[in-house]
Records
---
Amino acid sequence: MQEFIEFGLGGIGIGMIYAAIALSLVLIWRGTRVLNYSQGGMAMFTTYVAWEVISKTGNYWLGFVLALAAGLILGAVLERTVVRPTIGKSPLNSVIVTIGLLIFLEGLAGIIYGGQYRSFPAAYSVRGLRIGSFSLGISSNDLFTAAAVLAAALILALVFRYTTVGLRLRATAFNSGVARLLGIRIGRVLTLGWALAGLFGALAGVLVTPTTFLYPNSMDSIFVLGFTAAVIGGLDSPVGAVVGGVLLGVVLSYAGGYIGNDLVLVYGLVVLALVLMVRPSGLFSSAAARRV
Amino acid sequence: MTDAAGLAVEDIVAGYGGVPVLDGVSISARPGTITAVLGANGAGKTTLLRAISGFVRPRRGRVLVGGTDLARRPPEDIARAGVAHVPEGQGVITELTVEDNLRVGALATRDRAGRAAALADAYRRFPVLSERRRRAAATLSGGERQILVIARALMAAPRVLLLDEPSLGLAPRMVAQVMDLVRQLRDDAGLTVLLVEQNARSALGIADTGLVLNLGKVVAEDNAAALAGDVGLRRHYLGF
């Protein structure tokens, strides 16, 4: 029974990380129909930024905030320079470019920082919480992680729903031709979408790296699972991204706990395959299946 | 309501790829008038509107709105200069609500106070939209969608309105309603309207002037009554 609860709660905890990555992917996919294969690489890079700041200043929160800012800037810059020319062209172009970006970012991090695993601090205690003698399987830091991702997702949802910026983003995502017709400068909107995605990726990075340790490939498997979560939820749906992330986290936690922990990525692949067979458009998508 | 401008197109050559669809087309529309653009499928009517609104880049020629040449500018700039284009197929953003569709119309061109005023105006002028404001635009009928996209175009307080086949797919009673609406926009709001239509009879019924395109050239241009009265022309190009 204790194991059951531990695995469940732990799964929700890591699921929030997948949700954050999934949200980044959905943001970019909805706005630009580009699948950002470099999302994990961007998150890794901004986590190195946080690491630099924390090492030099000893201030965790400063590093946290600057990583998020770096995510915004990195997303905007990459869209404007490297990704923009691929918009509207063959989908293969954006695939090649974003994979190239991933390789570039990981290589650059390797050159600057080397390949060794570095430790990265957590915001709060990582000791398991207990109620009496009952171990919950999650820590204060896990609670903070969940709260942070949920808060960010909620703010994003509110922005989308109630602000003019959000309306611009939605209109451009749903029908960019009509948006241009109405005078909206969709270029700027696309840049904003990428900046927000960079923000969410950066958030995922600083939240998960205490567990994975920091090295150039540290976000690779997280990205794969975040991508899986996005597909499960339906690439068009932010709600789907969060639900897909949590769902995947929980399923993998139980599978890893009861079957064996070495094959987590394989379980992820199995879940992905199952979802694609049964409901290829994702749980929350209303549209027909898309090519990926 | 708006500060209508005259629209003049001078010797436009435009097309897709190597083939020019418009082969030296000139039009002149005085402020506050309805000009019907008629002709068979493929004559270049839609391309003409797209050349004006910037989605097709004219290879040659000028597009003058209120005296300023807007040819070859990006569509966003042309929209912001007061040219509202309601495309063929309407262009309703079906995933958004009616209200959000309307609000998008004003985003690029009006300030906050203007947007609120424009929305109130739209609901006053089009009660059917007010009733359905929170519903997804996808749930609207064809006629309601046509009214929605015209209302959306008006949110920007345009000086020139380009309408591409507003009667397409509508029942005759809705067609009459839409044509009536367009006529009102000229009468009450003094808008300059370029009305592309296959339904030549309805279009000439409300237009001040008309022109006929054939194979990328203007083959006839006259006031609407004269065009409607030219039986030979009607039979040859306009189908009635």
---
Amino acid sequence: MKALTLGLVLASTLILSACGGPRAFTRGEYGDPNEISMLDDKWNQNDMQLVAKKMIDSMEGWIDGRTIDKPVVILEMPRNKTTEHIDMQALYDHVKTALIQSGKFTFLDKAARREIAEEYEYQESGYVREDEAQGPGNQRGARYMMGGIITSTIQQVGNEKVVYYKATFELTDIATTEIVWTDHKEITKHFEKKSIGF
Amino acid sequence: MLRWTMIATLALVTAASAADLTRSEYGPAWALHAAKPGRTDGPEGSEYGKGGYGRFRGEGRFYIEGFLGSATVDSDDENGIGTSQTDLMAGLTAGYRVEDWLGFQLGYARIAEQNADFVSGGIRSSLGADPFNYYAGLDAEIYSPEAGARHFGIAPSIGAEIVLTDRIRAGLRFQRDIIFADESIDINRFAASLQFDF
């Protein structure tokens, strides 16, 4: 019985002392990207998905109610008016990918213009077969420009915090500067401060 | 005594399951623990009220645990004459879990027929493996038998629980009391437990 007692004490001590050592993120598993995972009070992937989903549905609804045939759209530089870092490119890519895959919109690659121009120069330099060389003059012109802005408001008192985001997207007719479509998504998140360490 | 312990265990588990079934929408009691978290790909507004805290709620919570079982007190007096007596034992533990794996607790227990009391304070370290939870604890205690003086002791313990819901756990625990006294006193306590997290 003494041996059992000693064993119990030793096991308890070992377990408890082991738990008190350095800790690291060594246990993990793949998760569903659409499952809400909110570990802190910052902008996260779920916020991006919610905004993107709202804009995609809204834009598809807008085009379905019109007779415009696959409008050509170019993306405006994203604007982040919040106080934190938000990867606007990831948000735009999310929206752009879904809209292209819907087959209802055509997007032009504004970011690749310089590289494409360099490629034209190279292909016209004589190194490339003449019948396969691509050159200027065939690019499509955008009719619409898609822009967006995200703003935020933070309220904090004691252990309570409320974070509010408002994401507004709009589609502007380049010919007339008329805003032909706009929509926004509001996100409010409530937080309570908790201890995260011993 | 073993029969009473088994009856008490069954009663505790049944009561916990029945209590939980009254508010479970998913059938079996422990199914609520694995309730579906919120998602971002549902209808507009379906994310309201959903968060990512479900699986991380183990930290920073108060808990209270009731237990009922048997205690066997083995003692040898100064002449080396040994006695062993087993009786019904019940108690209550209240604690605060600062993290998933670490809690601090205070406890009281009483051996019915012997009118012996235990007042204890210590720590508990847990290891979760859904839907089970295993723990080891180490308490310092005051042992107050009806006859004789109070004695100081230490009490390592181990236990296994099934997590019935986010708040309720039922399990079995074993505790070994090592009493520091002139005579040799060893107490083994085996009990069924029901824990409620706040």
